Amino acid sequence: MEFWTEVRRQVLVEGLSKRGAVKKYKIGWHTLDKILSLEEPPGYQQKQARPKPKIEAFLPIIAEILTADQKAPRKQRHSAKRIFERLRDEHEFTGGYTIVKDAVREWKHSQKEVFLPLTHRPGEAQMDWGFAKVSIRGHTEPVKVAIFVLTLPYSGAVFCQVFHRECTESFQEGHARAFEFFGGVPWRISYDNSKVAIAKILGSRDRKLTREFLRLQSHYLFAEHFCLVRRPNEKGHVERLVEYARGNFLVPVPVVDSLEELNEKLLAQCHADLEKQSRGKSTNKRLLLEEERSAFLGLPARAFEARRITQAAVSSQSLVRFDRNSYSVPTKYAHRKVTVVAAVDEVRFVFGDRLIARHRRCWEKEQFFYQPIHYLRLLERKPGGLDFAKPVDQWQLPKCFGILRRRLEASDEKHGTRFYIRVLRLLERRSLSQLTDAVEYALDIDVIDPSSIRVILEHRQERPAELFSLDGRPQLKTFNVETTDVSAYAALLSAR
């Protein structure tokens, strides 16, 4: 370029003749005319493709192999080297590996899909899952968690929460929290073909939806849009923001006491992200979100309950196995079918229309969770198992209960343990603090039989009768109620 500029300047500005330029710079006349007519070198321009006589006849075979590869497993597809070997061994190809590699690269480049930029209207949302590692104190290794991400492409707002696993209850809970964060319900949400939402794919766009997804949709009344199979580009905005949330909110690897603590931090980061301005937007995300809310559906007055319902059988040990863990229920429901209502943080067990047990949800596996109260009914019939029963092995009771047991067993060697268990069964209707007060009082007055402790407990829960007040009832002040003469009832005695 420097040479080009120098020649042009010398001839067109300094007055150097063309003959002098040809002689000085040792260039031809045609080259000088090109320099003077163009402001910059045009570069090499190939007028037609170079012939490839050795590979030309084999291009259809290469295309056939690569087309068939699209249906093969990803790890068992042809490399350029393998195609070269097959052409050499099976088709008597005499060319080199390089021209085969170039042909494969050119074919793959020609097959790459081109996408249309999409416009996003206010009130449209996209949802997707991602995965990351989180360090939870008390765990020796980082825990893999599922990242729920729901975005609004129009405003660029993003909502992110983490759950132990991608499942029905976390899917529903994520939506409920997202709608609360955005202050409304998007009128349409795009999804991939997750089994949480889709029971069966019936066609290109037809889907049979799961009952729990329909329950979520019926509550919030949004419209659904499912992408074509293996076409995540239809919701490309959230695909990018899953990476954005993971790279900005979860780097470095968070170290927390629980996922609830991490979700509070993520919620704060989502609020802070609203102050940023998206590329190509005239203002920040928060102002655009306020504008977009006019297209939202309103939040229902009644809160949505994110849960999954299933049926399970109670074992002979009064345990219900759910989601790879075992939870206890009262022993009178052993060998029966119960309904399991599973939320993100709690598992409830229902028999008929009665709630019979509730436990904190565990997301690990092969764990056992006992409530000692569930086994007291059985222990009353089998008091000899009190010191060996696993459900009560780690039960930490106040000191007064140990004193009560020793005194009951000392006063009645045969039935003392059963009497002690009968006292513990009062926990089926009262709290531990209430029973502790009653036991301490019974020990003070030296009345330790179960019936007396039950009376003390019930008496302490009775509320004294309150006097009827006329305050605020002026209409009742005009009535005069005379005092009853009880001596009139003596006539009944004399008559008999």
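(ticket continues) Second input and output from the same batch:
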Amino acid sequence: MADNSSDGFLPVPEGSIYWKHNYAADKDAGATRPTILLVHAAVADHTLWDAQVDFLNAKGWNCLRFDLFGFGQSSPSKEYLSAPGPKSYKPCPQIDRVRQTVLGPDASLIVIGLSMGANVALEYTLAYGAHVVAVGICAGGPRGFTGANDPAEDALFAEAEACLAKGDVQRAAELQVHIWGDGPLQPPGRLAPNVAAQMLRWNLDIAARESEKRGGLAFEMVFEGEAAMGRLGEFEGPMLVSWGTFDETFTTESMKAVVAARGPGRAVVGREFATGHMINLEVPGEFNAFVDEWLQGHELHKAR
């Protein structure tokens, strides 16, 4: 990782959000461009993007990341945990508080997310579009898409939920690695061992939080307004869309639907990678080149 960085914790009503800001190797270039905000998946934390941050910093981009509430170093307060009833929060206002606190009230962003992070990136873009010049949606499933999975895929999800319910954190984490790493219909072990090991480390922590109702998807995300899938035309800036061949059916079909919904002549670039769900982890070089080509092709360094 680049050494030129700052980080901290931002208080929010529900607890605190951890953020990290990595600066471009060329400080002058970074200061004149939008900041790239990277939003992680529900099976990872902000370190999901380490390889992209190194690459983008070298290319002259400042990068901002954070741990979504209940993930990584972001944490709920004792008061939030002890309050009666289901736990929920609104990620988009939290993200904008991070943007304003770290970058300033007028700062512009290029927002890129993977999986759940892609959905959050799109929702944030629709809610705070005045500050977003471009958005990247990778292996997501926007709110409002109504596709379905193969029954064998759904059976794996049900097994993972059952493991969490009975406190079998190890098996739940292993299933998450298989589903989101190998691909739910692929043979176990398809994923490179080093990537699988990293995913298991993340998911042992996440599964423990979810089993104990103190983080992860045990806290429900709440988004406002109509479903994002029907509002894609509201954002007129450039859009990057990507998906993996071996990913679950719902995700691959939703990403193809996003590209189709944007229609001909709209600023959208879509690509399928020969990967599972975790595109940027499996083929970081290919993914970085894809993002770089998109940034250059739309001259987003001039979009500030």
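Agent notes: The domain at 5-145+216-302 is CATH 3.40.50.1820 (Rossmann fold). Residues 193-211 form the longest helix (19 residues). Closing as not reproducible unless the customer responds.
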